[in-house]
Amino acid sequence: MKQQYAEWITNLDGDQSGKCQIRSRQMRLAFPELTVVRGVVRVRGPFGTLHTTPHWWCEDELVMVVDPTATQFIEVIGYNTLSRDLADIIGKCANCGEYFTGPSIICSQTCRTELMEYLK
């Protein structure tokens, strides 16, 4: 990572948890050669468990990751960019686990019915 990027990241104040989108966009404004990327990051949690979470970061001209909020994670295993057709995904369905778009935690009426039956 270029020294100027590292210095910019070091000068960020406070906990960076949940600030990946705004910090990536701010970094892009400071360094126009960077590209803001949306995808998922594979991380190791506090008890050694691995999980994948939605995330934003920057990439340089060589497609090297420049993540202004990587300090929110104990250990980053890897980054995966979402294709444009998946970039508007909101989350995973609480019933079937499929990714979906929409203002709910359930992807469809069928999944809602199944989940409600399960929870009875």
Q: Can you offer a commentary on this structure?
A:
- The structure is a single chain.
- The chain is α+β, with helices and mostly antiparallel strands.
- It folds into two domains: 3-83, no CATH class; 88-120, no CATH class.
- The protein has helices at 3-10, 20-30, 109-119; strands spanning 35-44, 50-59, 65-66, 75-81, 91-92, 99-100.
- A four-stranded antiparallel beta sheet has the order 3-2-1-4, with helices on one face. Strands 5-6 form a two-stranded antiparallel ribbon.
- The protein is elongated.
- The model has no long low-confidence stretch (mean pLDDT 86).
Salient structural properties:
single chain; 120 residues; 2 domains; 4-stranded antiparallel beta sheet; 6 strands; elongated
Short description:
The chain contains three helices and six strands. The chain has helices spanning 3-10, 20-30, 109-119, and strands spanning 35-44, 50-59, 65-66, 75-81, 91-92, 99-100. The longest helix has 11 residues, at 20-30.
Number of strands: 6
Average pLDDT value?
Answer: 86
Order of adjacent strands in the largest pleated sheet: 3-2-1-4
End-to-end C-alpha gap: 52 Å
Shape: elongated
Major beta sheet summary: 4 strands, antiparallel
Strand content: 25-35%
Rounded to an integer in angstroms, the radius of gyration calculated over CA atoms is: 17 Å
The tally of helices reads 3
Task: Please state the structural category.
Answer: alpha+beta
Low-pLDDT runs: none
SSE arrangement, N to C: HHEEEEEEH
The total domain count is 2
Oligomer: single chain
Helix content: 25-40%
